[in-house]
Design brief:
The complex is a heterodimer of chains A (531) and B (324). Chain A has 17 helices and 19 strands. Chain A is an alpha+beta fold and 531 residues long. In chain A, the strands form 4 sheets. In chain A, strands 1, 8, 9, 10, 11, 12, 13, 14, 15, 16 and 17 form an 11-stranded mixed sheet that branches. A 4-stranded antiparallel sheet of chain A has the order 4-5-7-6, covered by helices on one side. In chain B, helix 8 packs across helix 10. The chains are: A alpha+beta (531), B mainly alpha (324).
C-alpha cells in the first residue's frame, strides 16, 4: 500500500491509472468538506504529465536572470549550463580547459587568440552558430551597457571574424586565462536572432545551443527545460527535460528528494551530510569546490602591516577543528586558494602553515607584541558565519590574538571593509573562485584590486609571476608560474584561508550518472533516469 | 417593508464607507512597507550587479533603475503607476508583479481557506461537546488539548506532520504544490499537510471561544426560562444557543482567516509552496521592492475584504447590529 502511494506520486498517474487510494481519500475529503462539486475534471496527478525521463531538481535559488550577460548570481549557472553551450568547457575534477563550441583554440602570439568554432551547430531557434554569432556575443558581453561581465573580457582589444568558423581575439595584454573565462558566463552563446527580437537581452526568453531548450519560468517556483532532440554534442543527458523546483530552505530541499517530489537536490548543508550518507534510499555526491572561506587582511593597518603578525594568524588556526566544529566535517582544509584536486594546486605551498599556536606566539613576540595583539574583526551576521567567528576567536585566544567580531549583512560589511571606509583589520568572508586561478589572484592581491582592502603593493616578483602565468598557454609552464604566485601570497600571508566548501548533492535511486565538479555548480551532462 | 429598505440602505452606506476607509489604509500600509524597505540593510543594486561587482557598476545600475532617486519620489512614482493599475515588474527577474500575484496568491488562499474550513469543522463540534458537558473530564480534556493547540508553533507541527504522514507513511507529498487552477483535486491533496499544520491554532481557538460563549448563554436567564418551558436541551442548543453565539463565532473566524494568512509565510517555507508569502520573503531579502509592494497590497486588500464580509454577515445574522 505504501509503495502504491509513493508510485502515484512519483510517476504521473492519470485518473485512468490506478490512483484508487488517493481518489478514495479525495472522496472522503470532499464529503467531509461538503465540497464535492469543487472537484473538477481530473488530469494528471503530477505536473509532469506524459513525460518519462523528466529530471526533477530541487534548486536553492530563483535565477537572477536567464541571460548569461545580465545575471548576477553564482547560483544561476546551474540553470544556464543546460540552456547555453560554452565556447570552452572544463574537466569536472581538475577544471582544466577542454574544447566546447570552440573545437580548438590557439595563441598565435601572446596577444592573439584564434578560436575555431565547431561546424554545423544551430541555436534552438535554428539560427546558425558561426563565427559571426560568436563575435556578436563576445562584443555584447564586453561592451553592452547592461552586461555584468564586461570586466571578464577587459583584456580584449578587438574581435574579428577571420573565417566562417574562425574568430580572432586581439588582446591588449597577454592573457592565457581567456580560454577558461570563455567556459563561464562570457563564453555562453546566445542566439543573435533572439537578442535582436527581444531588444538585446534575453532575461526571460533564453535561446542558446545547449542540450535543453527553454520551457517555462515561474518566479521563485520553477524553471522547466525541454530536451533538444537534434543536439550537436555527445555530452547530452538521457533526459526528456529538467524541471527545477526552487526550494530555498535546504532541509525542505532534501525532504523533497526523500519523499519523492524531486529526484535530486544540490547545495545542501554540511550538517545534512550524515543524513545523505546514511539514508539507504539516497545517493550522495560529496566533493570539494573552489569556494573557500577565508580571512581577508587589510595590510595597510597596524599591526596587520607586519608579515610576522599575518603569519602568526595563519599558524594560530586549527583548520581541521574549524571544519569539524563549523561545517559538520564537510570541508577541505585550505592552506592556499586552491583545493588539492585543482590542476594548479601546489603541494609545497600547502605545507607552509601547520597548526602551531606556540609558533604564532613566538612570531608575535618577535614582531614586538609579547603580550599578544588586539584586532578589530569584521564578519557577517548569519548563523553559520557567527559560529565560524566564535570558533576562530577561541583558536586565536590560544595564540594571544584577541578581538571581537562586529557583524552586519554581507552587502554592508563588505562595502565598509573593501569600499571607501576601509574599516576593520580582518574580514571573515569567502572567495567564490574563478574558472582560471590567475583571475582570483589578480582580483585579490594586485595593488589596485578591490579585494586588496589596504591597497598594499604585492610582494616583489608577484606581478611578474602573475604575468608569466597569463603569458603561456602551456599547462606545465602555467602551473609553475601559478605555484610561484601562490607561494608568494602564502609566504607573505596576504590572506588566511580556512576551508573549502564541499558540494553536497543528494539524489534518489532513479538518477544515475550524476557527477560533481570542482566549481561546485552542478552540470547534468550524462545524467539518466531509471524507470 | 420600510425597515427592510432602511436596513438595505444602511448596508449600502456601510459598504461604501468601508471601501472609502480602505483607501487611506492601503496607502498607509504600502507607505510603511516602502519605508521599512529603505531602512533594512541590503541593496538590490548590489544584487543586480552580480558577484564582486565594482562600485562603478553598482552606481550605473542605481541610475538605470531609478534607485538613486529620493525616497519620496520613488514611492510617488510607484503609487502613481499602481493607481493606474501598473504594479511594475520584479527588479531582479523582470516578471510582472501582477503576474506574480496571480500565480502565487491562489496557492496561499487555498491553504488559508482550507485551514479555516478545517478549523471550523473540527473546532465547532469540539466546542459544543465541551460546552454541553461543561465541567466534565471530556471538557477538561478538550480544553487542555486546545491550550496545547494554541501554544504549538505551526511550523514545528508542520515538520512533525511531514515526518510521519509524508516521509514514514507516504500518504501525502512532503513538499511542493499544484496550482488549483491546473488540477483542483491534486491541489487539495498537496495542500492538506500545510492546511493541517496551520489549523491546529484555529481549531483550538474556535473550540475555546465557542465553548465560553455557549457556557455563558447556557447559564443565562432566558435559557433557564426555556428549560422551564420544557424545551429539550438539544433544541435549546441548536435553536437558541448556537444562534446566539453565531455572531461571535463569525468574528472569530474572520480574525482567524487573517491570522492564518499571515502564518502561511512560515508554512510555505516548510512545504516549499510557491505562495505569496514566500514571494514576499524572497523579495524582502533581495530588496526587490515592486514585488513586496504589490504582494502587500494584495494581502491588505484581502484582509479588508474579509473584514467587510464578516461585518456584513454579522449584520445579516443579528439585525440588532444595524440599529446601532
Amino acid at each position: 500500500m505504501k509503495k502504491q502511494h509513493r508510485d502515484q506520486h512519483d510517476e504521473d498517474l492519470t485518473i485512468n491509472g490506478n490512483g484508487v487510494s488517493r481518489r478514495a481519500f479525495m472522496g472522503y475529503l470532499s464529503g467531509a468538506l461538503a465540497a464535492g462539486t469543487l472537484l473538477g475534471p481530473t488530469r494528471a496527478w503530477g505536473q509532469n504529465g506524459g513525460k518519462t525521463a523528466l529530471l526533477r531538481v530541487g534548486a536553492n535559488a530563483n535565477p537572477s536572470s536567464l541571460d548569461p550577460a545580465t545575471g548576477g548570481s553564482g547560483s544561476d549557472h546551474v540553470f544556464l549550463y543546460p540552456l547555453y553551450d560554452t565556447l570552452v568547457t572544463w574537466d569536472f575534477e581538475t577544471l582544466k580547459a577542454e574544447p566546447g563550441l570552440a573545437e580548438s583554440w590557439q595563441f598565435t602570439d601572446p596577444k592573439t587568440l584564434v578560436l575555431t568554432i565547431k561546424q554545423g551547430v544551430l541555436f534552438h531557434d535554428g539560427t546558425a552558430l558561426d563565427a559571426q554569432a560568436v563575435k556578436t556575443n563576445l562584443d555584447r558581453n564586453r561592451s553592452a551597457e547592461y552586461s555584468n561581465i564586461r570586466a571578464d573580457l577587459a583584456s580584449v582589444e578587438a574581435i574579428t571574424v577571420s573565417g566562417e568558423h574562425q574568430v580572432t581575439l586581439t588582446l591588449k595584454n597577454p592573457d592565457t586565462a581567456l580560454p577558461l573565462i570563455l567556459s563561464d558566463r562570457a563564453g555562453m552563446m546566445v542566439s543573435p536572432a533572439a537578442l535582436e527580437k527581444h531588444g538585446g537581452r534575453v532575461d526571460r526568453n533564453p535561446v542558446g545551443a545547449g542540450f535543453m531548450r527553454f520551457g517555462n519560468w515561474a518566479d521563485g517556483s520553477e524553471v522547466v527545460l525541454n530536451a533538444v532532440k537534434d543536439y550537436h554534442g555527445d555530452n547530452r543527458p538521457a533526459l526528456d527535460g529538467i524541471e527545477f523546483k526552487v526550494i530555498t530552505d535546504s532541509a525542505t530541499r532534501l525532504r523533497a528528494v526523500m519523499s519523492g517530489q524531486a529526484d535530486l537536490a544540490y547545495h545542501l548543508d554540511g550538517r545534512q551530510k550524515p543524513l545523505v550518507e546514511k539514508m539507504p534510499t539516497l545517493s550522495g555526491a560529496i566533493s570539494s569546490t573552489i569556494y573557500v572561506y577565508q580571512l581577508y587582511m587589510n595590510m595597510a593597518r597596524k599591526p596587520m602591516d607586519d608579515v610576522r603578525v599575518r603569519q602568526a594568524i595563519n599558524y594560530a588556526i586549527d583548520r581541521q577543528a574549524f571544519i569539524r566544529a563549523t561545517m559538520a566535517g564537510a570541508g577541505e582544509p585550505a592552506y592556499m586558494n586552491l583545493p588539492e584536486s585543482h590542476w594548479a594546486f601546489d603541494k609545497d605551498t600547502a605545507g607552509l602553515y601547520p597548526y602551531d599556536p606556540e609558533k604564532a606566539k613566538a612570531l608575535l613576540a618577535e614582531a614586538g607584541y609579547p603580550d599578544g595583539i588586539e584586532l578589530d574583526l569584521r564578519g557577517y551576521n548569519d548563523q553559520s558565519s557567527v559560529q565560524m567567528q566564535e570558533v576562530l576567536l577561541a583558536q586565536f585566544a590560544k595564540a594571544g590574538i584577541r578581538g571581537r567580531f562586529r557583524t552586519g549583512t554581507i552587502a554592508d560589511m563588505s562595502a565598509a571593509y573593501f569600499g571607501q571606509q576601509k574599516t576593520g583589520d580582518m574580514l571573515l568572508s569567502a572567495w567564490t573562485g574563478r574558472p582560471d586561478p590567475s583571475l582570483s589572484y589578480s582580483l585579490m592581491y594586485t595593488e589596485d584590486a578591490y579585494f586588496n582592502a589596504g591597497s598594499v603593493a604585492p610582494p616583489e616578483g608577484f606581478n611578474d609571476a602573475l604575468l608569466a602565468s597569463r603569458s603561456s598557454d602551456d599547462l606545465e609552464e602555467r602551473k609553475t608560474a601559478l605555484a610561484q604566485v601562490q607561494r608568494l601570497v602564502m609566504e607573505n600571508a596576504l590572506v588566511a584561508p580556512l576551508a573549502f566548501r564541499q558540494s553536497i548533492v543528494a539524489s534518489n535511486d532513479r538518477v544515475s550518472g550524476y557527477q560533481n565538479n570542482l566549481l561546485g555548480k552542478p552540470k547534468f551532462n550524462g545524467v539518466s533516469l531509471k524507470g | 417593508m420600510a425597515t427592510a429598505v432602511k436596513a438595505n440602505r444602511v448596508k449600502q452606506k456601510m459598504v461604501a464607507s468601508r471601501l472609502l476607509q480602505a483607501l487611506p489604509i492601503l496607502i498607509l500600509a504600502t507607505f510603511i512597507v516602502f519605508s521599512l524597505m529603505q531602512l533594512i540593510p541590503g541593496d538590490v543594486a548590489v544584487t543586480l550587479a552580480g558577484e564582486n561587482a565594482s562600485a562603478e557598476r553598482i552606481a550605473q545600475i542605481r541610475e538605470a533603475y531609478g534607485l538613486n532617486q529620493p525616497f519620496l519620489a520613488q514611492y510617488g512614482d510607484w503609487l502613481w503607476r499602481a493607481a493606474q493599475g501598473d504594479l511594475g515588474a520584479s527588479l531582479l527577474s523582470g516578471e510582472p508583479v501582477a503576474q506574480t500575484i496571480a500565480r502565487t496568491f491562489p496557492n496561499t488562499l487555498l491553504i488559508a481557506v482550507y485551514a479555516v474550513l478545517l478549523s471550523v469543522l473540527v473546532g465547532v463540534p469540539l466546542g459544543i461537546l465541551a460546552a454541553t458537558r461543561s465541567g466534565s473530564p471530556l471538557d477538561s480534556g478538550i480544553m487542555g488539548a486546545a491550550s496545547l493547540g494554541v501554544a504549538v508553533p505551526n511550523f514545528w507541527f508542520g515538520m512533525i506532520l511531514v515526518l510521519y504522514l509524508a516521509l514514514t507513511f507516504k500518504w501525502f507529498p512532503a513538499t511542493g504544490f499544484v496550482s488549483p487552477r491546473e488540477d483542483f483535486s491534486a491541489a487539495l491533496w498537496y495542500a492538506t499537510l500545510p492546511a493541517l499544520a496551520l489549523c491546529t491554532n484555529g481549531i483550538a481557538e474556535v473550540a475555546r471561544q465557542l465553548r465560553s460563549s455557549l457556557v455563558e448563554i447556557q447559564s443565562s436567564q432566558h435559557v433557564r426560562t426555556l428549560h422551564a418551558k420544557g424545551l429539550s436541551p438539544a433544541r435549546i442548543l441548536w435553536k437558541h444557543g448556537l444562534k446566539n453565539v453565531s455572531v461571535n463565532l463569525l468574528t472569530v473566524v474572520g480574525l482567524l482567516f487573517n491570522k492564518i494568512l499571515a502564518a502561511t509565510v512560515v508554512v510555505e517555507a516548510v512545504f516549499a509552496i510557491p505562495g505569496i508569502g514566500s514571494s514576499i520573503v524572497n523579495a524582502v531579502l533581495q530588496g526587490d521592492f515592486p514585488v513586496v509592494q504589490g504582494a502587500v497590497l494584495a494581502m491588505v486588500v484581502t484582509v479588508i475584504l474579509v473584514n467587510l464580509f464578516t461585518d456584513l454577515a454579522c449584520t445579516a445574522l443579528d439585525p440588532r447590529i444595524n440599529e446601532l
